[in-house]
Design a protein that fits this description.
single chain, about 210 residues, 8 strands, about 20% strand, globular
Length: about 210
């Protein structure tokens, strides 16, 4: 069994402006750096074996701040932990998105499906679990990645309507015997009604 605590990176100016970031590489702002320090303090009460991050600078810097506080050397970078790509809506806020794509069912060119996000993240977790059995790792990633995994594992029971993956928040996942599950969402234990062990692989079907 390997435990992975997923942390969403700290705030950026685009987060503050409620603009979609996706894979656009926007750095942390000062609030985001303070959030990373606060998260590091919260995580310092536990023992950790390592830390891995998305290559995007907002996640990498968050991980560097956490690693420095916890004395974790050799930060690993995993490309498959990058944020969900949002295609033509990256850089836009909600009103701009609605103006450009008024039909919510209209596909956005270049936007990655949630299932595709899960399908690339699961093998990365499997590799890390195989390399670090029995260990506890911090994974610094993104709201779209964490939210997609939570939806997959809980069969869309979480996040609930209006429930956000906050900057600096932490969420505990467990990889064991070819499956992935969650033990905590945003610091709270999962209700038994939404706990399940999901396969550590996902077969994608092409949209019709």
């Amino acid at each position: 069994m390997t435990t992975f605590t997923f942390v969403r990176h700290g705030e950026t100016d685009w987060n503050l402006q409620r603009r979609i970031q996706g894979v656009t590489d926007i750095p942390l702002n000062d609030t985001g750096r303070a959030q990373a320090r606060d998260t590091a303090e919260a995580l310092a009460v536990r023992e950790w074996d390592g830390i891995v991050a998305s290559p995007l600078s907002r996640a990498r810097e968050t991980a560097e701040i956490i690693a420095a506080r916890l004395g974790l050397d050799d930060l690993e970078i995993e490309p498959d932990l990058r944020e969900r790509a949002y295609g033509e809506v990256e850089g836009l806020d909600h009103d701009q998105i609605v103006a450009r794509f008024p039909d919510p069912l209209e596909p956005v060119p270049g936007r990655e499906r949630r299932s595709a996000v899960v399908a690339r993240v699961l093998p990365a977790l499997q590799r890390l679990a195989e390399e670090h059995p029995g260990e506890s790792w911090i994974v610094v990633s993104h709201g779209g990645v964490i939210g997609s995994l939570v939806r997959y594992i809980t069969e869309k029971a979480l996040p609930q309507q209006g429930q956000l993956i906050a900057n600096g928040s932490a969420h505990d996942f467990v990889v064991e015997d070819g499956s992935v599950s969650m033990s905590e969402f945003n610091g709270s234990a999962l209700d038994e009604s939404v706990r399940r062990r999901a396969p550590l692989s996902l077969e994608l079907t092409l949209p019709s």
